[in-house]
Structure formats: structure tokens, C-alpha cells
Amino acid sequence: MPTLYIHIGHEKTGTTAIQRFCANNREKLEEYGVLYPSIGYQDFVHSSLVNCIHDLDNNTFLEFFPEGVDTEPENVWGELVKNAASWDKDILISSEHFISRLREKGVEYIKAYLKANLPKYQVKIIAFLRRQDECYVSRLSTLSKAGAVQGVNFWESEVLNKNIYYDYYTLMKLWANAFGSNSIILREYDRESDVTKDIQSIIFKSGYDLIDVKSNRENTSWSPVATHIGFKVNSICKRMSVVERRNKINKINNLLYEHGEYKHTFNGYSLIDFVLAKRINEIYHDSNRMLESEFYNGNRIFRELNDSEYTKTVSHLSDSDIIRALFKIV
């Protein structure tokens, strides 16, 4: 029986790298027995499959999709069926918005549609997960890039109130209820590892060599200081477009990384302190234990939090510190 692998995310776990790799190596993947189809609006990712059913749980479509794209589920998901009609081996589809945006109604739609239209395929759900404090820090960078005008305190309340975005057991249980606990494949995301090799180790049958690829990180997080500056700029320069703000902070971020002054002035700073990181992990402790018990053979999925990971925070930097340092490098 062939397998349909649905790589559902999570966000901030190298999903763009996986998707670009798969899109750029379609022919080689097919040679190895895995189809990575081109479906919908974006060629390299399958967010169109999410967009067309996004309104079931959210009453609207994905905000970044342009007007005029096909939002009829039968049409969009029908593209997957058409691809499968001329392919009798495994298929991989990928979008981080499967896990971050869809809830019970969306997942149930997928279950019913696949059962009716692709009955010969067994379904496997792949999720890369990141320890909650690290996920939160990376999310802050994304929010700053996206132009969020709310301060860090606003988003801190979100993570501390056990938001479902960080409640991995609840998220995975939705998919397990639809496709069975045995369908779930979990991996810890490690920023230093190569996620393209991780995904290959899951989808390839034994005996195939991994496809080597040079690491080319996309959609990487800003440095803590650049993220901190971004939130300040967003709150002050509201008349400036989000794109213009992001482009300017991107330049600052690149300067911070490239210029030697960064190592002396800004190196070692983090967005949150150890106390908050510990508190975040304590809040999701029970969720993680249930996740491990049901979907990870009872093993620990995340490495332990170490106080050396969070030494000094950007809150210790004054605006004058930042301005003086930036004036030295621009």
C-alpha cells in the first residue's frame, strides 16, 4: 500500500528549507519513489490545500493569499487526486499551515476527502516540533517581521495562557483522532541539524542514499536585537508600510551579523530570560509528557532547558546603547 505523507509543520522548524529542497529535487524524489506534486498557487509548498478549507475553522481564507485563487476544495484537492491517478507510489505534501491553522473541521474534511478519493493510500502525519520557549522566541521574530505593533508583553501573555499554538499534544491529537496514533511521526527540530536529511530519512525506503544539499537557510529569524528594534519601529513608524519597515530592519540585522561591532556590543543577548523560558516549559510540561507517551514511545522529545541558553536579555539594552552602536556601523 502506498503512503501519503502529510508534513504539517510546525512553523519555525525549517519548513521552508524542506519545501524548497523537495521542489528543487522533484525528479530525484520520483526516482526514489516519492512524488512531490505541484498544486495550486505556490509551486514549492501546498498551502493551497489549506487555504481552500481554512474557512471551515477560521471563517476566512489565509490572509496572504491573493484574491482570485481557486478556493473550491473539490477543485484544489482534486489536483492531488489527478497527480495520484498517474502515480502508484508514495506522495509527500507539505505546509506548516496544516498544523498552525486547521482545527477539527479542517482535519475532518481531509480525512473524509482522502477516504473517498484516495482509499488506496495509507496516511502518515509528519511533524517537526520545537521546545516551546525556542518556538516562542522564533515566533517573536516572525511577528516583528510581520509588522506587529503589539509589544512583547502582549505575545508573552499568549504563550503563558497555554495557547493551542504551543500545546503540541492537543494539536497532534486532532490528527491522531482522524488518522490514528500510529500515523503520527514526530521529530524534534534542532536548528543545527539538516532538516532536509531528516525528512529524507522518514520518506525514503531503506537502501537509498540521502540527497546531499548545501544548507541555504531561508526565512531565518532575526537576531534578538534586530527583533527588539523591529518591535520599536513597528510601534513608532505606523505610517511606513510593513514591507518597507521589514526591509530596513533586514539591513540592520545583516549589519549586526556582519560587523565586528556586533560581537562586542550585541553578542549573547536573548529576547527572553531563563526565568521566563523555564516558566513557559513548565506550563506545557503535562502536554509534552502526554505527547511523548502517546506518540513518542514514552521517550523525551526535547532536550532539557539549560540556564546557559539565556544569559542576558535585550531589555538590558537602552535605546541609547542601540543607537550609539548602530551609528558606528552605518
UniProtKB/TrEMBL annotation:
Family matches, as SUPFAM superfamilies: P-loop containing nucleoside triphosphate hydrolases
InterPro entries reported for this sequence: P-loop_NTPase
Taxonomy, superkingdom: Bacteria
Protein name (database record): Sulfotransferase domain-containing protein
Organism: Vibrio astriarenae
